[in-house]
Amino acid sequence: MNYRCLGSTQLRLSEIGLGCASYWGKEIFPESEAMKIVHAAIDEGVTLFDTGHSYSEGNAEKRLGKALRETRKYDMCVSTKAGTRLGKKGRLFKDFSPQWIRESCMESLRNLHLDALPIFQLHGPNCSDISDGLMSELYRLKKEGLIRSIGINTFDDAVIRMTIEQGVFDLVMLDYNILTQHREVLIDQLASKGIACIAGAPLADSLYSNRIFHLTEMKDLWYFARSVHSFRGKIFKGMHFRFVNTIQDITGAQVSLAYVLSNKNISSAVFGTTSEDHLRENVKASDMQLPDDVIKKIKSTDAKRFWFESALNGI
């Protein structure tokens, strides 16, 4: 495993991070299996574990805290998020009030069994949510030593641009993968301001493969339903990149991760899994360098896809 610095912070992250959310954190997925995945990640040199206060109906954070409690190492870096709350019947709603941000921080510390949160992110805010009161509270939490770095988790271009203009956050976690190569312009701009980037969804939800259609277990049905519900528009886009599954001696997932990590402005690429084998296979991407012709084909395929879609839309 290789490691990179998180921008101008003192944090050092594994190039591959484990996302502890979604099906992994749900009670329907056996806790013993979830624990094995975290322990396997540690064995492979993973030091970044990303979760959120509201993830998996509030269970993911607690599960991660339990998994790490007995295996804590000095270089472990946990990232969590605030701003999304669980309401009645499990419904999610946004709350970026200073009061809730502090309360969420304190609950996360208890859930994760930590004295301080290495990475504390605002979860999917709108530009209007970033108030002076909110920022003052984040600075207070940092001054009190309860959080070490402040970030935003967003897939919204407008919020990313605002982050660049303000220059007050330590990092941004955004969706960056072979299907979202347009992010590279914003990533460069963030880096020029000293703002670090963590790549979320680096596997593009496997939309470049047929894996989402292999429905053999309950978790497969869950992921398929999520893809249809949340990523319908990208399923067709993913078809253009099916060639990444045919490259000799490297899997499509490894190609995807290696492409993301070829961008030196990315501190870490975070993916989630419910398979120990899948985890061990994917972390090998940290030591892989894609041939120039593969990178060129990924970039040219994206350019052709953009031209095709623009023509269809009459642009």
Summarize the structure.
The chain is of the alpha/beta class and 315 residues long. Helices cover 43% and strands 16% of the residues.
Explain what this protein looks like in three dimensions:
- The chain is globular.
- By secondary structure, it is an alpha/beta fold.
- It has one domain: NADP-dependent oxidoreductase domain (TIM Barrel), CATH 3.20.20.100.
- Helix 2 crosses helix 3, helix 2 packs parallel to helix 11 and helix 4 packs parallel to helix 5.
- Helix 3 links the parallel strand 4 and strand 5.
- The N and C termini lie far apart (44 Å).
- It has an eight-stranded parallel barrel with strand order 3-4-5-8-9-10-11-12. A two-stranded antiparallel ribbon has the order 1-2.
- The chain is 43% helix and 16% strand.
- The longest helix has 21 residues.
Topology:
Blueprint: E1 3-5, E2 12-14, E3 16-19, H1 22-25, H2 31-43, E4 48-50, H3 59-69, E5 77-82, E6 84-86, E7 92-94, H4 98-112, E8 119-123, H5 132-143, E9 150-153, H6 157-166, E10 171-175, H7 183-192, E11 196-200, H8 218-230, H9 232-239, H10 252-261, E12 266-271, H11 276-283, H12 292-312
Parallel strand pairs: 3-4, 3-12, 4-5, 5-8, 8-9, 9-10, 10-11, 11-12
Antiparallel strand pairs: 1-2, 6-7
